[in-house]
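WARN no homologs supplied; continuing
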Amino acid sequence: MATLGDPKRSQRSKSSEEGFISASSLGDPTSDLEIFAKEVLTALISDNLPPTPNNFALYFDRILEEKSESLRRQIGSILELEEDNEDEKSIELEKTLKRGFSSVKSILQLSATLYKNISLMEKILDKRKEEIKSVPSLSGASDLLASLGNDVGKLSGILKKQVTHMKTIYEETATIVKQVENETIFDNQYGVYNKRYLLTRLEQERHLIDEFKHKSSLITVRLSKDTGSAIQSEKAQQLMVRTVARLLLKTSRRSDIVAHYGEGIFAMVLKHTDIDSAKRASERLFDLVASSNFFLAEQEIQLRIAIGVAELNVSAGVEQTLVCTLNAMEAADKEPTLRYMVCNP
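OK structure emitted
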């Protein structure tokens, strides 16, 4: 691959200008990070590569290695605001899961041993039954019963130890499963992120807004109470809520974060989106859901949602913003003529 400054690059750049935006047409950068980003984009265009996120990240890291230590530290400090240590979290989660699998394996092994011991006890009983038929005297029967009691006592002691061991392993496994649940970021029921991940990313976005002064917004969505109360079946209500989640994913962008806040309430973080754009997104979402009728047997139900909208603010905490947006959503649900309600702190 050609290096920066290679005359061959200028030739490739001319041939790529028709397919990509020329780096020279971009506005003058005002910070070291912007200058460096423009250099990365120029290198991508010169090498006739599409400036996709993966390609940009690859060139970003490769070219940054060639820069001075001071510049690497400066850009690195900025990037820390977006760093979420997902690789390290994945490693720790894998370690926890492996411990959990090991505990489950131990439980299965103990269960197999218990089964074998119980089978052994059944065989001993069958054997003693046959022996007692041929016992000629009462004293002989007493001896046989004493021997049987001894066998049962020994086996009972072994089983008690194994059951105690199994209980300990079960408790350890339950603790591991709880740890895994506490580290998960996905809501399996609705196929979106969970509340834990939502709060983490909201706090992260709040810091990014403070650093880079861009605009981002938050909307909260749930099925309207009138729509939900029209159906008595809990299963049908869950299907309608899942439909809302699916439509949220359908209308979201790659950069948006869709999460289940809880109790059928969903949140969508619209990154680099001002309040006016968030309003338009809410209108599109409302229309999309309203046009997606829900069929239950022979009954057709028109879905309606309630939407609360807020602009993320550095001065307001994450919980404060969420509460305000949820209150706006509840207010919108009480006004059938409204598609959404904007949070008013």
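The domain at 192-342 is CATH 3.30.70.270 (Alpha-Beta Plaits).
OK
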